[in-house]
Amino acid sequence: MPEQHAPRPARHDGQAPGPDGPNAPSRRLLLRSAAAGGVAAAALAAGAPGAVAGPAAKRVTGAKVRDLTGPALTGRFAAPWTDLGIPARCPDGSMLFVCGDTFDGGGVGGPDWRSPVGLRSSNAVPGSLVVDGAVGGSRAVGLVPEGHTGGTTAIPSDVFTVGRTMYMHLMRGVIYRTHHTDFWRSDDSGRTWRYLCQWPAGLHGGQFQQKTYAVADDGYLYVLSTAFNREAVSGLLLHRVRQDSPGDPAAYEPWGYAGGAWGWSNPPTTITSPRRWGEICFRAIAGRYALTWLNMSPLDIRAQIFASPTSNLFTTAEQAMIVPTVPGRETGNAVASPYGGFIVPGSGLDDLHIAVSQWYDNRNYRVMQYRVNGLTY
């Protein structure tokens, strides 16, 4: 079982449990605006499998590869209902999917609420992923202590591997009312996790809550961050930290604009237009960098591909990989109530695999794998 190596401060943001179950958060309310936006956008998306904001480019297409979770697939691990599924290739060669709020029973809000949990594919080839194991064996265990007292939870924003070590970043508190974020380390391919550090929720105006890390070949990790609240407008901040120091908050160096120039160690400045952000994922791929995210208005999952962590994202084309639709009209890369969009390690820019979550009722809550083609870079 995982053990906690450092105490977490007492929470000050508890609230009454939501209507989805005796201890579950009221997540329908949180996603209501996103779902409404998806329905409204479906008409605009009809007949447009992918779009590029900016210069004319190749047509972006996509298709579902498979469901990764669901009662028939992950029910045997007491995890029939789960989401996010951030994929990370483990040092032992497997693929670990770190999932968010997870329930047993008949649907979302059922018994045995855990977050995060780890589901595993022993085959890490992007085209052959099948969940055939879980951290904890027949019952996927919570990877870190989280009692969900007062509706709190631990939502993963990123999981990644550096050499033989894995790292996991979590957002703690009642969902969208973050109390703090914390950072964990595993040296056994995600089986157990050791606490490293935490950051206050209000750091950098709250825009350092949701973090994602690109592992570069220059010895640095490049970190993009936003607020963790789909209803709040946030900038996108960039930091870097040496790959041997991600557990030291003082080692993070911001990128910002000051004195008429951009530079490291300036106060952090948003590197693209502020907006309402959903999940974000930042990765180094084949000598370039890819940022994927859930865009809230209009609701779709987008990508930007660029040469350097400090490239100008104000002018980099935003390419829609997943477009919204309504249940019963899903085809190609059109998905009802999509979110997530985490890049699968081992996939390439010409054939990008992503983990896409879906939730539109208490029995349609899952992680799926999609394949995207035609991205311009």
Automatic annotation (TrEMBL):
Chain positions covered by the region annotation Disordered: 1-26
Cross-referenced InterPro entries: DUF4185 (IPR025442), Sialidase_sf (IPR036278), TAT_signal (IPR006311)
Entries under Pfam families matching the protein: DUF4185 (PF13810)
Ranges where the DUF4185 domain occurs: 75-371
Protein name: DUF4185 domain-containing protein
Organism taxonomic ancestry: Bacteria, Bacillati, Actinomycetota, Actinomycetes, Kitasatosporales
